[in-house]
Known about the structure:
Blueprint: H1 5-25, H2 31-42, H3 46-58, E1 61-62, H4 68-75, E2 79-81, E3 87-90, H5 93-143
Antiparallel strand pairs: 1-3, 2-3
Helix pairs in contact: 2-3, 3-4
Amino acid sequence: MQVSGRKSEHIAHEERSFSRRKRATGVPRDDETVIRSLGTDIELGWEEAMLYLKILREGGIPKAEKNRSTEVLLSRGMILLSGDGSRFIALHPRLGVANYFRTYQERVTRELRERRMRVDKLILELIPVYEAATKKKLAEQGEK
């Protein structure tokens, strides 16, 4: 994908600006705020968000610490098993969080499609009720 000169300059400026802010403040926000954002923005559970942050900070956790939260993070593409199979390691946040958001988006889209199908079915069930009432009302008006 080719980016126009003006747009690529703007992107580069934003990246430099973010890097300066990050260096100036260290971590952009406190753990609680980041964990809350992971919960509200991508609906990651509190335990999973805590574990993901821990794995990011520590560079991984032993495979022996596997639990339901590691299963969630694995299934969402945020962590993976190291090459030697001894540790769970985090993907780069740009990829890991994007993977999680993608799976979240797919799940929500699927749920909306299923709900739309149920709504369409309900509409089809209600149409004859409406038409029968309308027909009855017209018949009553015709008798007057």
